[in-house]
Amino acid sequence: MDREWGSKPGSGGAASAQNEAIDRRERLRRLALETIDLAKDPYFMRNHLGSYECKLCLTLHNNEGNYLAHTQGKRHQTNLAKRAAREAKDAPALPQPNKRKVNIRKTVKIGRPGYRVTKQFDPETKQRSLLFQIEYPEIEDNTKPRHRFMSSYEQRIEANDKRFQYLLFAAEPYEIISFKVPSTEIDKSTPKFFSHWDPDSKMFTLQLYFKLKPPEANKPQSVAAANGTLPSQPPPPPPLQGLAAGSRPPPPPLPASLPPPPPMGNGPRPMPPGGAPPAPPPPPGGSGAMANFTPGNQVGRPPMLPPQGFPGQQMQGQVMRPPPPPPNMGQ
Question: Which positions fall inside the Matrin-type domain (predicted)?
């Protein structure tokens, strides 16, 4: 009898360990073909001989089922773990941003709260202030209202305007309300900026003061004034309209600070209409009484030089003599 013991009649005998392994691999191959797409496997390659290779383990397989059975084995899984560890070690360690996860509560809103806004002015400090009174009669137990300032560039409801900012109030289960206030710096000092929550009357109070803007007169002086230099003179006035072509405008009036002209020998002469000063008189001729006059030496005065004429003019009848030597005061 070539039939093994323990099997039923007509069953062909019990399967050996080799037959069980072949059957198990076949079942794994059919299961892998249904669930795994070989086109997306980076290590699957078909060579020119028609067989299949695993580029990770460098193994050769006769068919796709044999390769899929290999991918589920211990050798392939170990090589995958080693490859992942090596890639993680070689990759640069980038700092991960610390993202704070905020869980948003989904509650049913019951509407907007009642509010009252009062404008105030301090006559002593010339500051303007706002007083907000928000009523939350149906606020949740052990809950306190919250507030924050929002820039015009954070919101998505209105167009961005740098002249304004928004003050938000929030308390569950009421809707969030906001107030549009000027974008002026808030005075955060303790007596001027405060908030208070009254749990008995269910009213939240907030008061804020705006800082004063610096006046225009307090601007720093220019660099020229700081260095002590005077600013440049204003440009001359434009020419008068209605003058004929080629004519000269009348001269500007002389300022009162200029000294008067020195008097002449024969009396002051009027200014010619052209505005130019009069020409000096010509030197005396040779026939006058002063032709041969030589100034004498006076004690304590330097010798006088002989009169000279203008370039292009010649002295007529006048004899040029050198001045005498100065007297010897030491003898």
Answer: 52-82
**If DSSP states are collapsed to H, E and C, what string results for 27-46?**
HHHHHHHHHCCHHHCCCEEE
Residue bearing the bigger pLDDT, 14 or 283: 14
Residue 162 makes CB contacts below 8 A (sequence gap 6+) with 152, 183
Shared domain for 69 and 119, answered yes or no, is no
Distance CA 200, CA 131 (A): 20
Domain of 185, in residue numbers:
114-210
Long-range contact list for 188-196, CB < 8 A, 24+ apart?
192/127, 192/129, 195/147
Residue 229 belongs to a domain: no
What separation in angstroms does the CA of 88 have from each of 41, 81, 123, 210?
Answer: 20, 11, 69, 55
pTM of the complete model beyond 0.70:
no
Rounded to whole angstroms, the Cα distance separating 77 from 68 reads: 12
pLDDT (tens digit per residue) in 44-102: 999 998 899 999 999 999 988 888 888 888 999 999 999 999 998 888 777 777 777 77
Query: Any idea what DSSP says for residue 106?
Result: -
Q: How many domains does the chain have?
A: 2
Paired with 169 in beta bridges are: 147, 177
Compute how many other C-beta atoms are within 10 angstroms of the C-beta atom of residue 155: 15
Q: What gap in Å lies between CA 82 and CA 104, rounded to an integer?
A: 41
Residue 278, pLDDT > 80, answer no
